[in-house]
Amino acid sequence: MSDTLLLWPVILPLAGAALAAAFHARPGVQRAVALATMTATFGASVLLINAVMAGDILTKAFGGWMPPFGIVFAADRFSAAMVVISSLLALCALVFSMGDLRKRQVKSGFYPLFMGLMIGVNGAFLTGDIFNLYVWFEVMLIATLGLITLDRTRVQIDGAIKYAVLNLFSTILFLMAIGLLYGATGTLNMADLAIVLPQAESSAALTLSAMMFLMAFGIKAGFFPMFFWLPASYHTASIIVSAVFAGLLTKVGVYALFRVFTLLFEVDDGTLKPLIALFAAGTMVFGVFGAAVQWDVRRILSFHIISQIGYIMLGLAIATPLAMAGAVFYIIHHIVVKANLFFIAGAIHRATGSFDLRKSGGLMKSSPMLAVLFAIPALSLAGIPPLSGFWAKLMVVDASFQGEAAWLAAVALFVGLLTIFSMSKIWIEAFWKEPVRRLRVRPVPAAMIAPIAVLGIITLAIGFNPEPLVAFSNLAAESMGDRTQFIGAFFDQAHTAGVTP
Amino acid sequence: MSVIFSTMSRLFFVLMLVASVYMLFRGHNEPGGGFIGGLFAALAFALLALADSVKAARRALMIHPSVLIGAGLFLAFLSGLPGLLSDGSFLTHWWAEIGSVHVGTATAFDIGVFMVVIGGVLSLVFRFYEGVEQ
User: How distant, in Å, are the alpha carbons of A339, A484, B125 from that of A189?
Assistant: First the structure.
């Protein structure tokens, strides 16, 4: 019965979203429901990763329709890890929201939408069907638009429109890519595609389809040259929403990219490899330059999401098992650190009343605890040893030297330096310098500090003891690269059920 | 609003609700179902809002559209659970014969869809009409 484990990370938030919407007029009940379901979801995701840890791939066909006909969920180490880390982040965000959420935002449907987002995110990580992946992307898009416009201000609607236009463009590309793929192969099941595609003759349709997947997920993941929507919209949302977006949304795009370009298409053959390498380098450099000229904490952090996505892409561009392992490590590290930095931006806002660095200051004296909590993820993001970011950077840079892409490694190191510049800018402006005007610093509630501390402790734990996560990343990259195992997990089951695909 | 329109809208309101329920259950084996039925019912309330006022339509609906969405979604969720017991698959439906009628948990799912569609459409429509009325 262990395969039902796959369902819970999706259907628990579904039940939570439904209940929270049903208790429309009772914010207290909504909050209790949301906390209970997210705790349960996190528990379920831990059980899931426990089940796949040994190297098995769990699959679950819906409604008794066997693959390749029915919709199938599948979890290997990589997807299970993504589910765990995103559920943990969602739980942290909910705790944080207890200190920061306003009545009006609850009334606009924060809880149902938030859990709706988690349905989409977890669904996208777990699905084994390429069209079903598209459906989860749509679920996420709907929930995201609702979450951006939570306060219904003009700025937010402006941000939401920018977000919607580019993301709709991305989903249309995605849909067309699926259409071409289906036309060429006649199947949508990922494992079945992994059987059919290597045997298929290379055709214009397939090449076009691969390019469109790259573009579609590229827009979602926010990489060069299609990242403009991200800094234009993320900072308009309320800070809890920004934190969750920063941690999860781009990573879903990255995840989809990794799945499609390990399972369906090869990065190694032909034009794709230099193209992805170019994108990765561009993403790193432009993201970090964008951040350098900003003064709003949220905008600085938004640009840093982009530059960090470049590092993850670097793993895919080199495409050796070592590089893939580095990328997996980087994703996990980055989700924790980036969401944490956004939470801290929220705490700075609470303490000083502004997101603008020029107007804040003096936090070092007034709340030293916040200063310490900021230093952990900020230094980790910049890649200072011995924090988690150092190991993540080390793995991808090492992989690019070994993968004979030294220029990518050089770009990565240069961008790392600039990241330090950005982080020290926030440090100097918000924490170090004397406050511009006499500022009454407000206390930050414990509900906001607790998730920051938890994520900070995780960062430290990864930093001081990276070995388990490195080992895990290697295993995850290995099973991600192993097509036959993935295919075997699907079609073994079909044979025992007496259906021959 | 003209007298004819507002009088006839009462009649049509009832007729459309009846038709929507018919559509919902017809969808069991023939074209129809929760989605179309839900649109019919939402249209009935939208008509009432247009002919009388949004306030009257909200009163006729009795509960907030968001609550309807949540309740419908939860019903659909519950209808998927029995499948977990039988063969461990969410949304695998149970079927039974009561007399000559073939019923199953899929009916509960369809009623859930029906409620979600009414709630979804009406929360949009009411908001728009309220904007016009102001």
Answer: 33, 15, 38
Q: In angstroms, what separates the C-alpha of B90 from chain A's closest C-alpha?
A: 7
DSSP string, A157-225: HHHHHHHHHHHHHHHHHHHHHHHHHHHHHS--BHHHHHHHHHHSPP-HHHHHHHHHHHHHHHHHHT-TT
**Per-chain mean pLDDT for chain A:** 88
Mark yes or no for CB contact B84/A62 under 8 Å. no
For chain B, give the mean pLDDT.
Answer: 88
Q: Which domain holds residue A469?
A: 2-491
Find out whether A100 and A65 touch, Cβ atoms under 8 Å.
no
Give chain A's domain count. 1
Residue B76, H or E segment: helix B65-87
User: Within 13 Å and on the Cβ side, how many CA atoms surround A62?
Assistant: 18
Residue with tokens 């039925």: B37
A60-96 burial string, b = 16+ CB within 10 Å, else e? bbbeeebbbebbbbbbbbbbbbbbbbbbbbbbbbbbb
Of A14, A22, A61, nearest to B67 by CB-CB distance is: A22
Residue A500 covered by a domain: no
Interface predicted TM-score (ipTM) of this complex, two decimals:
0.88
The answer to whether A46 and A12 are in contact (CB under 8 A) is: no
Best probe of the A interface among B64, B74, B93, B115, by most A CBs < 10 A, is B74
Give the torsion through C-alpha atoms of A163, A164, A166, A170, to 10 deg: 120
* Phi and psi at residue A319, to the nearest 5°: 60, 20
- Which of chain A's residues have a Cβ under 8 Å away from the Cβ of B91? 62-63
User: What pLDDT sits at residue A2?
Assistant: 62
Q: What is the pLDDT of residues A375-396, one digit of tens each?
A: 999 999 988 888 999 999 999 9
- Beta-carbon separation of A25 and B67 below 8 A: yes
Between chain A and chain B, how many beta carbons pairs sit less than 8 Å apart?
Answer: 62
Q: Count Cβ atoms below 10 Å from residue A142 Cβ, excluding itself.
A: 14
Range of the domain at B105: 3-133
Report the predicted TM-score, pTM, of the whole model to 2 decimal places: 0.92
Mean pLDDT across the stretch A232-242? 88
pLDDT per position as a tens digit, A99-116 = 888 888 998 899 999 999
Look at B89 and A63 and tell me if their CB atoms are within 8 Å.
yes
Task: Please give, rounded to a whole number of angstroms, the shortest distance from the CA of A11 to a CA of chain B.
Answer: 8
pLDDT score for A69: 81
**Which pLDDT tens digit goes with each residue over A288-344?**
998 888 888 888 999 999 999 999 999 888 888 899 999 999 999 999 999 999 999
Q: What interhelical angle do A483-496 and A467-481 show, nearest 10?
A: 70
Give the range among A234-248, A273-287, A432-446 with minimum mean pLDDT.
Answer: A432-446
Alpha-carbon distance of A216 to A204, in angstroms, equals: 18
**Measured between CB atoms, does A25 come within 8 Å of chain B?**
yes
How many domains are there within chain B?
Answer: 1
Query: For A75-79, A342-346, A401-405, which range has the lowest pLDDT when averaged over its residues?
Result: A401-405
Q: Give the pLDDT of residue B134.
A: 65
Question: Does A501 fall in a domain?
Answer: no
Residue of B nearest to A15 (CA): B74
